[in-house]
Amino acid sequence: MDLYFSPLACSMATRVALYEAGAEAKYLEVDPPTKTVLSDGSDFRAVNPIGLVPTLRTDEGVVLTENAAILQYVADRFPQSGLGAAAGIDRTRLHQWLCFIGTELHKGLFIPLLDRKAPQETKAYALEKNLSRLDYLDNYLKGRDFLLDHFSVADAYLVTVINWTMATPPIELAKWPNVKAYYERLRQRPSVAKAVAEEFELYKAELARKKAAA
To answer: Where is the GST N-terminal domain positioned along the sequence (predicted)?
Structure first.
């Protein structure tokens, strides 16, 4: 498998899932501004015309896009990992959380805050409208270790998104103690710790390249 990713982006959730499953994959870094695959200088848009990570090429050569779909593919591809959920209400709960993380947190709350070109009014509106999602999550996580009854691809996605609070000062996790405890606990999980450490180093290298090119 080939995973196209950018450091500390939402694609890190798939890296976590693959590490959790003990799966072999080739990790191909994409430069976000130029949409260039750094390993060979190719145009990433030839793989995914939208130019967004994560993008996964399966062993069969099928190209998959969209974070939630890729995560569920990994869970189904490696059932022994326990990253998925059984058919029925458990699978529906997994879908529910992947949708919540993707729409309410990832796109609704964090993307406006992380967008350097977004007007301050847009950022203020995103905070006003969407901080209640963290209230909901904090209440749900009280007394829980994971979103389901075990670590799943939804947790891989959620810890990736919560990790962005390092770059969003208006969101102080101390205000949501259960979310903070969940994040700190999952950061110690080997698959998460490995993914964060590796991608942070790649992110620092990315910043150095941009500085040198300026």
So the answer is: 1-82
